[in-house]
Amino acid sequence: MRKIVVILVSLVLLSGCKDQESKPQITFLESGVMIANQGNFGWGEGTLTLYNPDDNTVQNDVFQNINDKSLGNVFQSITRINGLYYFVINNSGKIIVTDSAFLQIGQIDGLISPRYLYPITDTKAYVTDLYADAISVIDLNLNKVTKSIPVKGWSEKGVVKGDIFWFTVTGSNKIYGVDINTDNVIDSLDVGNSPESIVLDNSDRIWVICKGDKDMKAMLVRFDISDESAEFQIELENTPTGLVFDQFNNVLYFLNNGLWSMKPNETLPNLIYDGEGKTFYALEINPSNGDLYVSDIVDFVSNSSILRFDKNGDLINQFYAGIIAGDFFFQ
After folding, report:
1. pLDDT tens, residue by residue, 185-215
2. CB of 82 closer than 8 Å to CB of 140
3. pTM for this one?
4. How many CB atoms lie within 10 A of CB 174?
């Protein structure tokens, strides 16, 4: 009997050792790239990828390997506030809070279909939403929704200028302004149809890219907020998305069947990389060096191909992340 017990204990210990050995080791980076892979809507699981641009190494399934559980369905976006990471999980209606080592330490519930989280103060954030007809106000100390700001439709991306949070409402023809002191909508500006992304340039002017629809062409619009005038606008073909601004090189970039660039004082954008044969989905700029990261999500079920470009659109490197890579965050 004693021999049997010893053998069983040995087998348990051996099994535990094998489990520990098989678990991937995560290398934490001081200046890496985090990628939010959405996973398939409704049945897939979101995953976190880490990319080291210094040696081009890739680590997939980082959150699951650290926490022994999945993120949830549709990993929409990543934000960092006060050294903590906030992972917005769209279809699961939650925001996961982790420490700097991606270990979950909290969760924000009570959301409908969250999209992007924007820090307003050290203790308050706004969350845009696809279906809630509202922007949620988050108490970052309590990790709770404290109030809702009524919005008619799908709120998407935003910027803070002074005491106003300006955000796009996809499906409308307006951007709206919220007073961050009172959490009330106080202003709106007419833009093109279906505004999608919004940025501030180095002159504190607001740029909005609008996807358009069957009746109205897509547009790129620039506003002088001081007098609320649209001082520049151009029509665009197809369905542009993902407007971003490189403040160091003073260049706008967006996706539209390829990668386009335009300086704020120019009147027409330039195609710097043709996306023929690719399904470009997300675009972001590394603020430390101006490198551009674009996801090609291929067929929506395969692992995404990530293309890394320099500021001129020359390809630096290509690697693979998870399914439907939809957001980038630079540590």
Report:
1. 999 999 999 999 999 999 999 999 999 998 8
2. yes
3. 0.92
4. 16
